[in-house]
Structure formats: structure tokens, C-alpha cells
Amino acid sequence: MRTQVAIVGAGPSGLLLGALLHKAGIDHVIVEQRSPDYVLGRIRAGVLEQVAVDLLDEAGVGARLHAEGLPHDGFDLCFDGRRHRIDLHALTGKRVVVYGQTEVTRDLMDHRAAVGRTTVYDADNVAVGGFDTARPFVTFRQGGVEQRLEADFIAGCDGFHGVCRASVPGSAIQTFEKVYPFGWLGVLADVPPVSHELIYGNSDRGFMLASMRSKTRSRYYVQCRLDEKVEAWSDDAFWDELKRRLPAADAERLVTGPSIEKSIAPLRSFVTEPMRFGRLFLAGDAAHIVPPTGAKGLNLAASDVALLARGFIEHYAGSNEGIDRYSERALSRVWKAERFSWWFTSLMHQFPETGGFGAKMQLAELDYLCGSVAAQTVMAENYVGLPIPG
Ligand code: APR
Ligand code: PHB
Fold this sequence. Notes:
Layout: E1 5-8, H1 12-23, E2 28-31, H2 36-41, E3 47-48, H3 50-58, H4 63-68, E4 70-72, E5 75-79, E6 82-86, H5 88-92, E7 96-98, H6 101-115, E8 119-120, E9 124-129, E10 137-142, E11 145-150, E12 153-156, H7 163-166, E13 174-189, E14 199-203, E15 206-212, E16 218-224, H8 235-245, H9 248-253, E17 259-273, E18 276-277, E19 280-282, E20 288-289, H10 297-316, H11 321-324, H12 326-348, H13 355-371, H14 373-384
Helix pairs in contact: 1-6, 1-10, 10-12, 13-14
Bound molecules: adenosine-5-diphosphoribose and P-hydroxybenzoic acid.
């Protein structure tokens, strides 16, 4: 097969890139190793920056997001028995939208089916090559038949464990990583959220987050040790622990129920430099991971894809400026979001190894934050999303 852009991975990055290239009339094929149900089955975060909402609108997949998404003008921080609202809209004139990543993925998949673009699911032995030549290619096996897809460019949207970054020679790539000494135990349940906005808490028992997917479906997280097993956590044990970390009034009000999903996720910061290797371009989790505290994962994937789509559109219009500056532009926004996610994670979690002094530093920073409009504006500006460079 021959196409202009071969996209590896049909997660949010690959599908959004596909939608933007479709709109621009650029030929492309997506190759995904898993089934559509598997891709849809993964539970991920759900806070969209205005930048991501605008991109989904531009790609023509924003209707359900606007109909069912929950616009939020702020969120609460609670610590030391105090609760403080960060008024995003008053501080920045912007807001975020709570809308699950699974719903974004579903909207992108429905759009793709409706416009009849090719997605190869259940592709085995996916491999990429030739990206240091003028004719990069993707090979894979489907239905027992060896396939070869030749293209002008390969977009590596295959996530952290994908084949694209792994195919780059070690000498051409640099990685930066921080692994945090704890995880997030998350529960999804069809119960009304305890608050109409998100609550981020730093309690002496650890971090907690009260989030939601809708007015009837809630998502809660508590910080846990990395060696803990999800099987060891009954629903009751989870709700009891959450109540211990919530402000008393919220714990009173908390509606509990059976979990429909429960899992433990590790926290990691990871960045790859550069994000382009000849005619191979990495986007989203294939190039970088953020700890979920700042809800930047999906939003960073969207801004990468915006820059990459723009680069390909410019290329086929005769200019290589966009693709030549893709890596530098994407990384400048990636590192800022990495910094914000690391800072927010460091502020809101218990780090036993830092002892009493570390805990006092956190409380002093939270106290300062709650008393300073300047500090709140810095936080709000990063939370609602920084502009896409270029
Ligand atoms: N060949 C083909 N497809 C692959 C391969 C491979 N070798 N390896 C992985 N994939 C597919 C996965 O099955 C998955 O569907 O690539 C897709 C990558 O999707 P994600 O991991 O969701 O990454 P991305 O699309 O960049 O989305 C980033 O996901 O993890 C969240 O917080 C993160 O919100 C962010 C978003
Ligand atoms: C979520 O709803 O899953 C969520 C929200 C905000 C975060 C992280 C996760 O910072």
C-alpha cells in the first residue's frame, strides 16, 4: 500500500491526527495493534484544556463534548483542614471541560468510520523502517498476510510501549525520566460526585482527588504505595480511606457505591528528545509521559498533533518550516507541562523520605498559594493550558 502519512497507533493522538489530516485532504492510514474495543476499554483521565477543545472542534468532533462535557471554572485545594478554591476563570478568563478520554476516543472513532478513512486494527508484528530515507515504511501482519505500507512520513502515535520510539537508534535519542515513589489507586463508580468541581487534597495520609465523568459518574483517586495490590482493596476499604482524606463536610456528603473500575497506576515523568528522526515523528505518549496530577497527558498529545498536522499541511503546500521546527516547538510546550505536572505532584503528595521538613515546605507553599493572587494566576495559567508555540 502507498499513502502520504502512515500513522502507527489509534489512541487519541493517532485518531486526532487522522481527523485533522482528513480535513486537509492529506492521505493517511492508521495501523493499530489492538481491537477497537480494547482501545475504547482503557480508562484514562478527563480534563480538557481550551486548546484541546478548540482542536477537537477544528477536527469536526466537538459536538458531543459540548453537549455532554462539564465546563469547570475552578477547582479546590484542600490541606491542613483548609479548603481553597482556585478560580480559573477569574484568574485567566479561561476554563477547562471535564469529558472522559474514553469519550474523546469514541467520538474520534465514530467520526473516522463516518468519513470512511482506513484504520487497520489487530495488526500483528508492526515494524517501522526507512525513516532515514525518502521512503519510510510500516510492515505488519493482518489475517496471516504480510503487509507493507509505504509513505512519505511516519507518525509514531503508538504510546509509551510502542514500536516507533523503540526503533530509533540509541545514539540518536535522549530520554529524561523521573519515577515517583507511589501510585494512584483509582475507582470509577456510578454515584453522584461529592462536589460539582474537582477537589485535590494533600492529607497526612496522602494525596486524594475527587473527580467525575458526569453528574452521575464519579472518579476518585488516593495515593497508595507502589507495592500495593488492587485486589487487596475492597470497595469499602477504598471509600473509608477516601473519607479519611476528604474534608469532614465532604466525607459526610460522600455517596458511595460499587466500583465499575478499580486500578493502581504508577506515576512517572518521561521525555524523549528530539521528537523527530528523519521522516519519523513522535507524538503523545510515544514521546512523553506526565504524572496525572495536572491532567496534562491528553492535552499534550493534542498539542503535539496540532503542530504535526500543521507541519504536514505546510509540507504538501510547499514549505518544510513546520515539520523542521516540529520537535523544538512541541518540546518547548512539553517541558512546561512536565514542569507543572512535577510541581503539582510534588506539592500535593506525601513523600515520606523528605520527612517533616518536606511536609512543612508543602504546607508553606500551599499557604502562600492561597494568599497570593500572583501565585494562583501562575497555577491557573498552567492548569487551563499554555498556548501552542509557532
Ligand atoms: N503497533 C501498532 N499500534 C500500537 C503499537 C504497535 N507496536 N504499540 C502500541 N500501539 C497502540 C496502542 O494499542 C494504543 O491504542 O498505540 C495506541 C497508543 O495510544 P495511547 O497510549 O493512548 O497514547 P496516545 O494516543 O499518545 O494518547 C495519550 O493517553 O495515556 C494517555 O495520559 C495519556 O492522555 C494521554 C493519552
Ligand atoms: C480524572 O478525572 O481522571 C482526572 C482529573 C484530573 C486530574 C487527573 C485525573 O488531574
